[in-house]
Amino acid sequence: MPFLIDGHNVIAALRDIDLDDPDDEAKLVMKLRAWSSRVQRKAIVVFDGGLPGGFSRTMSTADIGVVFAARYHTNADRIIDERLRNLPDAPNWTVVSSDHEVLDRARAKGARTVTAQEFAAALERSPAQDKPKPDAISAAEVDDWLQIFQEPEPGPEPEPHPTPLPPPATSPPSVAA
Fold first, then answer.
1. What does the alpha-carbon distance between residue 137 and residue 131 come to, in Å, rounded to a whole number?
2. Which of 78, 87, 76 lies closest to 110, judged by CA?
3. For the chain, which end, N or C, has fewer CB atoms within 10 Å of the first or last residue's CB respectively?
4. Which uninterrupted H or E stretch holds 107?
5. Residue 90, number of CB atoms within 10 A of its CB
6. Residues in the chain where the model's pLDDT stays below 70
7. Which 8-state DSSP code applies to residue 149?
């Protein structure tokens, strides 16, 4: 299930990226790449105020598409609405935004929705937090591992190798006068 994300809404919800940072979009894209590889999802992130706007070939990857809304002509909310309207499989998408109207329109198209705050919390979770570790190993699991990694049968003791003798001492060559 791919995601359609309002990038600046997510940045505003993150604790470690500030909207005033000139590299805020690049930092979010890096977080999205890590998230995408961890959860095996694709996403399109839309940012407001790009010059000239449009798809960013330099920031996009196969899994994360980056789109900038053209400054003074449109905005991320409008681009998300247009893309959602043109998707033949909108119910397979999840829209991420802080804008309740955008989320309402997405639900009306059948898309799933997540608030930017909920999505930011998922981005901030470490990969280890996604997979709970068991408190203990069961006896059956120990038996399974012991069958796979069996102790070798004790065999005959190997014969000790003789210790090599040091080379014989040689006298220094004589010097002819």
1. 16
2. 87
3. C
4. helix 100-108
5. 18
6. 51, 126-135, 151-152, 161-166, 168-177
7. S
**Pick from 1, 5, 2: which is nearest to 114 by CA?**
5
Q: Is the peptide bond before 52 cis (omega within 30 degrees of 0)?
A: yes
Please answer whether residues 63 and 36 qualify as being in contact, where contact means their C-beta atoms are separated by less than 8 angstroms.
yes
Around Cβ 60, how many Cβ atoms within 10 Å? 15
- Phi/psi for 83 (5° steps) reads -65, -45
pLDDT at position 174 is 62
Q: What is the pLDDT of residue 147?
A: 74
pLDDT given for residue 136 in this prediction: 75
Q: What is the pTM of this model?
A: 0.70
Sheet holding 3-6, edge to edge: 54-55, 64-70, 43-50, 3-6, 94-97, 112-115
